[in-house]
Structure formats: structure tokens, C-alpha cells
Amino acid sequence: MPIEEALAIAREKGLDLVEVASQATPVVCKIVDYGKYHYQLEKRERKQKRRTKLKEVKFTIKIGEHDFQTKMGRVRHFLSRGDMVRVSIFFRGREIVHAARGREMLKRIEEEVSDIARVDGQPMARGRTLQMMLVPTQPS
User: Fold this and answer.
1) How many Cα atoms within 13 Å fall on the side-chain side of residue 84?
2) Separation in Å, CA 74 to CA 8, 56, 77, 112
3) What is the pLDDT of residues 4-47, one digit of tens each?
4) Which residues are CB-contacts of 99 (< 8 A; sequence separation ≥ 6)?
5) Considering only CA atoms, which of 29, 25, 37, 23 is closest in space to residue 4?
6) CB of 33 within 8 A of CB of 49?
7) Do the beta carbons of residue 54 and residue 112 sit within 8 Å?
8) Which stretch of 36-50, 57-71, 74-88 has the lowest confidence by average pLDDT?
9) Do domains 3-49 and 54-136 have the same CATH topology?
10) Cis bond leading into 26, ω under 30°?
11) Strand order in 117-126's β-sheet?
């Protein structure tokens, strides 16, 4: 339909003519309340920005150096994407008496990602696990 006719219909209804797809042929327009339309678009964008996920990476105190570096690569990948990461250190059997080694490992992890993340709160002991939350410092 011609633009003039669409504008006349929009004015008659007390609404606005909004261009939805300018690259399409012919150009696609909608007759809507622009204020409401703009609010819905902003609401959708805010919802998409908030989709940071929580990822968990599990360690044990007997982990080898290569395995540690591999898991640290995953942690860095998640943080660079903007996800929050929960680092968990599991204690099996009698390993629980070596909780200090677990805390040392958490300190090491914190130091390795200090350039892209910060620790959210203090490391917490939950049963047979030590947990720490890492939050990315720069938005992605």
C-alpha cells in the first residue's frame, strides 16, 4: 500500500506508522503506538543482556598440573563470555582433613584470573566441598 494511505490510516486511528524492516522489498511498516513499541523493544534488549549464566568447574586437591591448566582455560573462557563461575573443590574420603590445601588452591585460582574476574564473597565450605564465586570484571 502507498505510504500516504498508510499514514492516513495511522492518523485516523491515533497511532504511528513505524518502519520495521527497511532492507526488505517492499519496506515493511506497522501501525502501532510508538511509545509502547519502543518500550517493548527496550524491555526485550534488557532481558537479553541479563542472560549471564552460572557455570561450575570442579576441582580436587589431587589434580595434576595439566588438568589444572585445562580447567583454568575453561574458567577463563566462561568468564570472557560474561558468565559467572562457581569453582568447587571436592574432598573425597579422608581428604577433608586437608582443607587448607583446598583454600590454597582457591587462592591460586583467584590469582590466575585476577585480570578478568573478581571473587564474589568469601570462599564457603559446604559439606565436603569448598566453593568460591567468580564474577567477570569487564562486561562482554
Assistant:
1) 13
2) 57, 10, 5, 12
3) 888 899 899 988 888 888 888 888 888 988 889 889 888 888 77
4) 91, 125, 130
5) 29
6) no
7) no
8) 36-50
9) no
10) yes
11) 54-60, 84-90, 129-136, 117-126
- Which residues is 54 bridged to in the sheet? 84
Q: What is the CATH number of domain 3-49?
A: 3.10.20.80
Return the CATH fold of 54-136. Answer: Translation Initiation Factor IF3 (3.30.110)
At residue 27, what are phi and psi to the nearest 5 degrees? -60, 135
Grid cell of 37 as nine digits = 513499541
- Predicted confidence at residue 58, as pLDDT, reads 96
Is pTM beyond 0.70? Reply is: no
> Residue 60 pLDDT > 80, yes or no?
yes
- Sequence-distant (6+) residues with CB within 8 A of 88 are 56, 57, 58, 59, 129, 130, 131
The identity of residue 30, as a single letter, is K
Residue ranges of domains in the chain: 3-49, 54-136
Q: Is the dihedral of CA 47, 79, 73, 95 positive or negative?
A: negative
C-alpha cell at 91: 574432598
Q: What angle do CA 31, 45, 3 make, to 5 degrees?
A: 20
Residue in the block written with cell 582455560: 73
